[in-house]
Specification:
The chain has about 250 residues and is of the alpha/beta class. The protein has 6 helices and 13 strands. It has 2 domains: about 180 residues, Zn-dependent exopeptidases (Aminopeptidase, 3-Layer(aba) Sandwich), CATH 3.40.630.40; about 60 residues, SH3 type barrels (Roll), CATH 2.30.30. The strands form 3 sheets. A 6-stranded mixed β-sheet has the order 4-1-5-8-6-7, sandwiched between helices. Strands 12-11-10-9-13 form a 5-stranded antiparallel β-sheet, with no helix packed on it. It has a two-stranded antiparallel sheet with strand order 2-3. The two termini are about 30 Å apart. It binds zinc ion. Zinc ion binds next to loops. InterPro entries: DUF5776, MurNAc-LAA_cat, N-acetylmuramoyl_amidase_3.
Length: about 250
């Protein structure tokens, strides 16, 4: 198994960058949990651990210590940028070359994210960040647009953009780490609420969702079946909802 540590930045009392009515901590948690879900559903040799799965704030040392203790093969930190600019960039540790193992892995991720994120390319960069310096395994930090740029922020408010960015990261990880798709993984897919006008970045309360689809939420379908002539989907929670074409779109 390839052990992948996914680190959504900030969280809890640390919102990260804030602008245009959204907070970095929520955007990056949505991207990070989507990356985890895709890896777990579609790949046979990917094992995922996250620094946080809710609105909590592990310290930077807690994150790197946790990844090191777990024996991660790769550390992926997810952020969004601020400070006047637009577009995507990613980082490896200062002393690493682009031709190093980590540099080559980063190049794969960079290429695949850029194919799907609809953003301008600010390039491949280096920095002396804690999570890049204190990790005992290859580590990459991605900055997915500028929250204080209105066009980038509009993308961050879109569930489909969140999914595209997560998919880009996963496609890059697949190439960088030699991940293998499960056979028959085409039977798993995501559904998106078509009438969405609101977006919820926090994890849904699965137990409260039986029989309903809330606007703007993304569910992970693990099984499709027919009950009394109606198509139903088993969600990650094990709850069942009736698929209503007016409200549910297969993506
Ligand atoms: Zn950040």
């Amino acid at each position: 198994m390839v052990k992948i540590y996914v680190d959504p930045g900030h969280g809890g009392s640390d919102p990260g960058a804030v602008a245009n009515g959204i907070q970095e901590k929520n955007v990056v948690l949505a991207i990070g949990t989507s990356i985890r879900d895709i890896l777990q559903l579609e790949y046979e040799n990917a094992e995922v651990r996250m620094s946080r799965t809710g609105d909590t704030f592990p310290s930077l040392s807690q994150r790197t210590n946790d990844a090191n203790a777990w024996g991660a093969d790769f550390f992926l930190s997810i952020h969004v940028n601020a400070g006047g600019g637009t577009g995507y960039e990613d980082y490896i540790y200062t002393t690493l070359s682009d031709s190093s193992a980590t540099g080559v892995m980063r190049a794969r991720i960079h290429e695949e994210v850029m194919k799907l994120n609809g953003m301008s390319d600010r390039g491949r960069k280096k920095a002396n960040f804690h999570v890049l310096r204190e990790t005992a395994m290859p580590a990459v930090l991605t900055e997915n647009g500028f929250i204080d740029n209105s066009a980038d922020a509009a993308k961050m408010k879109s569930n489909s953009w969140i999914q595209d960015v997560a998919r880009g990261h996963v496609n890059g990880l697949e190439r960088a780490l030699g991940l293998r798709k499960k056979s028959g993984s085409g039977s798993t897919f995501l559904i998106r609420v078509k009438v969405a006008s609101l977006y919820y970045y926090d994890a849904p309360d699965w137990n409260a969702r039986a029989g309903t689809v809330s606007q703007g939420e993304v569910f992970t379908v693990v099984e499709t079946l027919t009950v009394n002539g109606s198509t139903m989907y088993r969600l990650k929670s094990g709850n069942y909802i009736t698929a209503n074409p007016q409200y549910v779109e297969i993506i």
